[in-house]
Amino acid sequence: MKIVLLSGGSGKRLWPLSNEVRSKQFLKVVRDGDGRVESMLQRVHRQMQAAGLGDGVTVATGAAQVESIKGQLGEAVSIVVEPERRNTFPAIALSAAYLYFEKNCPMEETVVVLPVDPYVGEEYFQMLHKLDAAVQAGAADIILMGVAPTYPSEKYGYIIPQAGVDGQGLARNIPGNRGEGKEGIFPGTSRKIPNTVDDVDGTQEMAQIFPGTSREGRLVGNENSQILPVLEFREKPDMQTAGELILKGGLWNCGVFAFKLSYLMGIIKNTIPCACYADVLHQYGELEKTSFDYAVVEKAESVAVLPYHGEWKDLGTWNTLTEVMEEKPIGDVVVSEKCRNTHVINELSIPIVVMGAKDMIVAASPDGILVSDKEQSSYIKGYVENRDMRPMFEERSWGEYKVLDIAGGEDGTKSLTKRKKIREGEQIAYQVHQNRAEVLTVLSGKCIITVNDRAHEAFAGDTYSVPAGVKHGVFAVTDTEVLEVQVGKELIKDGTELIEGKEE
Predict the structure, then answer these.
(1) Per residue in 205-255, pLDDT tens?
(2) Is the pTM of this model over 0.85?
(3) Measured between alpha carbons, how far is 131 from 143 in angstroms, rounded to an integer?
(4) Taken in order 71, 43, 3, 268, is the CA torsion positive or negative?
(5) How far apart (Å, rounded) are the C-alpha atoms in residues 418 and 420?
(6) Which of 206, 201, 195, 197 is nearest to 240 (CA)?
(7) For residue 458, which phi and psi values (nearest 5 degrees)?
């Protein structure tokens, strides 16, 4: 079995900590079992290692996120880089081509695709082994994982399993539908359910119908979960319809797909002519810019779903992310005793004091400051998605940097000041900039600064001037901090040439 992790998105819903480069999966705001802070990407990767799945993982992402991924998972991680952002179908198709042409995976190999950032329990990854077994057994062309809902929601798509119900609550396949002829592959359990929410006592709250984290009479637990044929899909229904779908056994679509490599490679080869991975890369723009659900799943001859009843949370908004944050204040923060259900995250070097706030999120980073009611925080995307904002913080494979200042003179000359943290043993590429000069000041640590092929040992307080057109690089002997001031007419697209090493 091979795992493809989809890492994309612009991170607008968790602004200002997330941006085009630093999406939500990279934010270090959750803790592992030992209390160490980690990102969602690191958490998922750690959980897959524990489930024995770590060796078969490939991450699909855009070029802007490659350095962040390597910085958090290491240089050895397998990465597929999309030439451009085109939605999940092209990304998954490119990943499949990579596995086939570059990794020489057999056509019979099971491929499981999942988001890079689910907040889930360990049992979630054990369920992937069940998906693999179902794919190899030929249960369906595409097998999904569906999360058993704990409440009606308009945020998710719904998968409606197809099951007949007898008097004992045993599910059976309905003749003439997708599951026909696969008796024994699709056994499961169900119950008779009301046709609509109106059939339930209107005075009952959903919590009474679905007590705790499970609802009365839902499909059996993970240890006995069975593959069920899919009747239909419903995309983000209104609240009333969501309640009806849950009562009919509907499951949340959590974006997990499993299939044989041969199935998707057949679709790819029928779409674009390709004899190697380079062919797929070259024709990437020819692949339909749409979701995998629309392009593949809804067109498949047979689709099945594996119900999942364990821990699962979508941490796509501040409101949901704060539910799993163990520490309410992070950074230089003072929160008064009268604050209630308020989380404060401060990445700035100045203090934040919050007094008497209730149900609030306060987040500050070099990219901006957010002060919001938690419920309203889910609407932030509309306020920031059209703003042209340069990322002010970024993790790289060698460390991280923070932009401290951006300025411009009347003559068109610009300056940009970065504080760079370089990990011991890492280096910033040996490179040359044609349109800007740099001034490098060592703030802490010991490093080797190379200028025009001459290496210099540098310590805290040492400063080096690098004119435009001069080759230079930095190697960290110990953990090192460097203040970098860029000066020139063009600072972004300035004709940088990498001579050796990693991208700056």
Answers:
(1) 333 333 332 333 233 334 446 889 999 999 888 889 999 999 889 999 999
(2) no
(3) 7
(4) negative
(5) 6
(6) 197
(7) -130, 140
Domain that holds residue 356: 327-384
Tokens representing residue 221 in the block: 């637990």
Q: Which residue has the tokens 């929601």?
A: 153
Helix count and strand count (H, E) for the chain: 11, 33
**Shortest CA distance to 88 belongs to which of 233, 247, 293?**
293
| Share above pLDDT 90 across residues of the chain, in percent, rounded to a whole number | 52
Backbone dihedral angles phi then psi of residue 56, each to the nearest 5 degrees: -110, 30
* Residue 343 and residue 261 in contact, taking contact as beta carbons nearer than 8 Å: no
- Which three-class secondary structure state does DSSP give residue 444? strand
Question: Given a cut of 50, is residue 131 above it in pLDDT?
Answer: yes
Residue at which a domain ends, from 313, 341, 365: 313
- Using the CB atoms, write b or e for 256-280: b if 16+ within 10 Å: bbbbbbebbbebbeebeebeebeeb
The residue behind tokens 């609802």 is 215
pLDDT (tens digit, 9 = 90+) per residue, 434-458? 889 999 999 999 999 999 999 999 9
390 inside domain? no
DSSP string across 156-210: S-EEEE--EE-TT-EEEPPTTSTTTT-TTTS-EE-----SSGGGS-TT--HHHHS
3 state DSSP class of 294? helix
| CATH number for position 123 | 3.90.550.10
Inside any domain, residue 392: no
What are the φ and ψ backbone dihedral angles of 302, each rounded to 5 degrees? -140, 135
Identify any residues that bridge with 408 across adjacent strands, giving them in sequence order: 414
Indicate if 199 and 104 belong to the same structural domain.
yes
CB neighbours of 10 closer than 8 A, spacing ≥ 6? 18, 19, 20, 23, 385
